[in-house]
Write a structure and sequence with these properties.
- The chain is of the alpha+beta class and 391 residues long.
- The chain has a domain of 96 residues.
- The protein is 43% helix and 17% strand.
- It contains 16 helices and 14 strands.
- Strands 11-12-13-14 form a four-stranded antiparallel sheet, sandwiched between helices. Strands 1-9-10 form a three-stranded mixed sheet. It has a three-stranded antiparallel sheet with strand order 2-4-3, with helices on both faces.
- A hairpin with a 5-residue loop joins β3 and β4.
- The longest helix has 29 residues.
- The protein is globular, with a radius of gyration of 22 Å.
């Protein structure tokens, strides 16, 4: 097996993810495509991740791609997480992971409404409620979750979790129906009723939003196509990397790899995989600096992260595996960043990367401060390092 060392992996990351100067994406849709898709659980992450991979992106540029051109689409997929996919990847994502996530969402919702005594036959209720939602949104209409709940009695009711405990809460079932329909590719989060760093989605039927039916591949073709895209962007990777990123099983990963022209490579003693036409050595790049937001796709792209994360996992990831904002120098993470009281970006270095790195990261902090223009972004899942600032 050809050996692919850490230096070469970092060079691949810099070029393919558009993080090094000279390798930026031409626009926001290409920026998403470079990393398969952008994390969207934290609404600001979509904008900050796209900005980091382009030269001069504005908020209006991304909103145009999301809401007018619709070359980017928000969709619930891997690990029951919200992403922004290039439209060209949406169908294989639906086939590769979306259908499985949708099935799990439906089964869990049916089980919980029956256990709570809301509906004796949860399957029949969910079918009627889903049909009512789709009918209410017919003709290209958009509506918020609150509007749909007021109009459709079948969406009424709440589920209680952790009763009597500090973390307990009552959750309405209406949004859960919308989540299940979105995972199935029937609904989409359309325009946003809030600011760019907040999520206030209006819902629409997927077919109406796209202007055409989503042509979903059958069988394992979608899974194989999705894995191929991941290998193009993130390869080399291990079985554990792919299993985690997909939120799937090892058997599914092995089926996908068996359907693709892949070769094994040596990752300093571990076995990795690349596509057969992607084995040429990557040329090194000049040292580069980047400030990436929480849940950025580069930070979250692999399960085995030591080659770019080093010893900083405990400070930059929470206990559920969610990454906070990170500061990068030459292909590895050297700390994080936050915002001061005036909205200025402040570096939180966890090691001394040297004076050239400090200067480059300081310049990145100034550029990001200017771009944010006073807007404060608070990570939805703050890392221990981010929480230390709040305290």
């Amino acid at each position: 097996m050809r050996r692919l060392d850490v230096v070469e992996r970092r060079a691949r990351l810099a070029r393919r993810h558009g993080l090094a100067p000279g390798w930026r994406a031409a626009g926001v849709t290409e920026a998403a495509d470079r990393v398969v898709c952008l994390h969207a659980t934290d609404p600001a992450t979509v904008y900050l991740s796209a900005r980091a991979r382009t030269e001069s992106m504005t908020v209006a540029d991304l909103e145009h791609a999301l809401f007018r051109e619709r070359s980017l689409v928000k969709h619930l997929a891997m690990r029951r997480t919200l992403f922004v996919f290039p439209r060209t990847t949406l169908a294989v994502a639906q086939a590769g992971v979306g259908n499985r996530v949708a099935g799990a969402e439906r089964r869990r919702l049916i089980r919980e409404v029956e256990a709570a005594g809301l509906h004796h036959d949860g399957t029949a209720w969910l079918a009627r409620a889903s049909a009512a939602v789709l009918e209410a949104l017919a003709g290209g209409r958009e509506a918020t979750s609150s509007q749909l709940r007021r109009e459709i009695p079948l969406l009424e009711g709440t589920l209680t979790y952790g009763e009597g405990r500090s973390w307990g809460a009552s959750v309405p079932v209406g949004p859960r129906v919308l989540t299940a329909l979105s995972a199935a590719g029937a609904l989409v989060r359309a325009t946003n009723g809030g600011a760019w760093n907040a999520s206030r989605p209006r819902w629409a039927r997927m077919e109406d939003w796209l202007g055409e039916e989503l042509a979903v591949p059958q069988g394992d073709a979608g899974l194989a196509a999705l894995v191929e895209r991941w290998l193009r962007s993130f390869g080399p990777g291990t079985l554990a990397d792919l299993k985690w990123w997909l939120g799937s099983t090892l058997s599914a990963v092995r089926r996908a790899l068996a359907a693709l022209p892949v070769v094994k490579v040596d990752l300093d003693g571990a076995t990795g995989y690349v596509l057969g036409d992607d084995v040429e050595a990557a040329e090194p790049v000049e040292p580069w600096a980047a400030l990436l937001p929480s849940l950025d796709p580069t930070v979250m792209g692999w399960f085995e992260r030591d080659w770019y994360l080093g010893e900083h996992r405990a400070q930059l990831f929470d206990t559920n595996g969610n990454a906070g904002p990170t500061a990068w120098w030459d292909g590895r993470i050297v700390g994080g960043w936050c915002q001061g009281g005036g909205g200025e970006v402040v570096l939180q270095l966890l090691e001394d990367p040297g004076s050239p790195a400090r200067a480059a990261l300081g310049a990145e902090a100034e550029r990001l401060t200017t771009w944010l223009d006073g807007v404060t972004v608070l990570p939805r899942f703050p890392s221990p390092l981010a929480r230390s600032v709040r305290r």
